[in-house]
Amino acid sequence: MATKRLVFNFPPHLIDQPVTYQLITEHNLKINILRARITPREWGRLVVEVSGKKQNLDAGLQFASDLGLDIKPLAQDVQWDAEKCIACTACCSVCPTGALSVTRQDMQVSFDHDKCIACELCIPVCPYEAMQIEF
Amino acid sequence: MAKTIQEINEKIKSGKAVVYTAEEIISVARSKGKKKAAAEVDVVTTGTFAPMCSSGAYFNVGHSNPRIKLGGGSVTLNDIPVYTGFAAVDFFVGATAIPDDDPRNKIHPGKFPYGGGHLIEDLVAGKDAQLLARAYGTDCYPRRKLETWIRLEDMNEAMLFNMRNGYQNYNVAVNLSDRIIYTYMGVLHPNLRNATYCSAGQLSPLLNDPLYRTIGIGTRIFLGGGVGYVVDRGTQHNPDVPRTDRGVPRMGAGTLAVMGDLKQMNARWLRGASFSGYGVTLAVGIGIPVPILDEEMLNYTAVTDNDIVAQVVDYSEAYPNCIPGSLGEVTYAQLKSGSITVKDKKVPTAGLSSYARAREVASTLKNWIAEGSFLLSEPVAPVPSVESGIKFKPLQERPIFNNARVAVD
Ligand code: SF4
Ligand code: SF4
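^ Those are the sequences you sent over. The predicted structure of the assembly is below.
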């Protein structure tokens, strides 16, 4: 038996597909949903604990990523370092939840921790190491 | 009535100069009318804070005892290789230099966590750096090895010298391919999923003096949080491009070479930056004062994000292969609204140049001038404008045939 805590990021076109169901029925995996956020026309996110036989787990995750699911190990927390941030806004167009957002009037950037789903899309985008994951 | 730079400086010295930022001047011009505003306003301050790769710094570290000839030797500072092809203890650090053992893009996309840009930031922040040197040894410079900690304050000269900064306008980057690409314009998602731009628009220095009437060689500027100077046109200066009615280039055009003493700069305005899959660079804060000599200058500085356009360029195919053309023209007002339309698709936009910080540069420079601590300078010579005939040329490759010693056309 192998167990992994993962974050499934669903692109908008996969949100209405029964991916989790297929993982359970076709790949014989046990899936415990820890957190979920699904919004129409946006990226959805499931934080899951998946367990099953090692080979089933590998095959199931392969199947899901082939479908276009973005699968990441669960990062515990994403932090924004306001001192390091230069408010370039580069991250704001990739942040799927609006956790990172721009006030258009003065083009200042702010981070709403409660909206962050730790999808990590902003991490490679920020050139100034202002977005950091804490495990 | 026209003013001169000397007259404006007299007003600055007596604390009476009327100064606005390039953002504030827009509403001042609207409410007072251009004629009245031109008569009343003395200076408009501009600003930008963005990655500028052709930046660097030169240093003179002083002579060790016994002496060592770093010139022609190999030197690293915090593992960043520096260029030593000068006299004994002078060298140049480029913003994009990276350690020899950085894996680069071997594991794609490379992270490029530390490079020349970060080194310059660290030195300006007052941090110690490790200097490691190997030299070949001569009769007058016998030493062959040197390892020491060094700080900015220990050096004789430490000068920021950027051969191309302050690009007058720039491309908007998108990705038409079906794979993610990692560029100097940031991470571009496939099938037009995002667009990035890099200009402060209405606050940007050269967009407020589009034909370089007042910004020239010797212009005193805000550079990296301190005072610097325009030394000449920058590399790739390309004034002769299509322009709008008010003279504003519709695409990348003029550039500036600038320099200044690093010891009076501030790490808030010189920030190392790591672009995933691309490399390291330095974000530089620059602010240039524009003297309002007459109504024409006022009119230039009253330019708004609605009046400035940029070209949308595909960075998956067109840019790498030098295929000319644009996917469309958008205004900075649209870019800053958060989305533009390209090929009938709504595309979210993001900046690389920080408008929020550009405002801070412009208002800092405004305060310096208002409190009399920063005087304007008369350019010694202009930077070449449209009629100069200067063109940014592509490289014409000429193959080198076997063992040829002499070039043939
Ligand atoms: S990890 Fe980054 S991109 Fe993802 S939701 Fe949080 S802030 Fe937004
Ligand atoms: S990419 Fe980094 S520096 Fe730019 S706005 Fe986002 S957090 Fe700030």
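The CA atoms of residues 91 and 125 of chain A lie 6 Å apart. The domain at 79-133 of chain A is CATH 3.30.70.20 (Alpha-Beta Plaits).

Shout if you want it in another format.
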